[in-house]
Design goal:
Helices cover 15% and strands 54% of the residues. The protein contains 1 helix and 10 strands, in the order H-E-E-E-E-E-E-E-E-E-E. It is of the alpha+beta class.
Length: 142
């Protein structure tokens, strides 16, 4: 009789266990790890994989690099593109590999006379969809 009881309990646990696994919401199964998300900042430099000189407005000398830094997740083993956009037109694009998640990376654009104005840097996924964006203003000293 004990053997039969133990067997019945074991089968009951397997069935309940299988039912629970199927009934789990997607976020409990790790699906959120596949949804691209990015923290995006703009600044004047990178030190130890962190952004320095973060700002929303820059007054810089001609030839200064402005960096876009991101900590991105949900894009492991794929590529992302940093796009620097002014007036709705993409000025510079840089495609980068994302080997793991989360991953920190950056891109920059060198600003010269004539580059003054409102800018947006966008991060695009491998499918071309926008993951994140950050607006900033540039004034180039003469």
């Amino acid at each position: 009789m004990r053997k039969g009881l133990i067997l019945a309990i074991g089968i009951g646990l397997v069935v309940v266990g299988a039912g629970v696994a199927i009934a789990r919401p997607a976020f409990l199964l790790g699906a959120e790890a596949n949804i691209p998300a990015a923290e995006l900042k703009v600044g004047l430099g990178i030190e130890k994989m962190e952004l320095t000189g973060e700002a929303k407005a820059f007054k810089v000398a001609s030839g200064t690099k402005i960096y876009a830094w991101t900590k991105i997740s949900g894009c492991a083993d794929s590529k992302i593109t940093f796009a620097f956009v002014k007036g709705g037109k993409t000025s510079t694009q840089q495609e980068l590999n994302v080997p793991r998640s989360p991953y920190r990376t950056n891109a920059y654009r060198t600003f010269r006379a004539g580059d003054e104005g409102e800018w947006v840097v966008k991060i695009l996924g491998s499918d071309g969809k926008e993951i994140s964006s950050a607006a900033f203003t540039v004034e180039v000293e003469k």
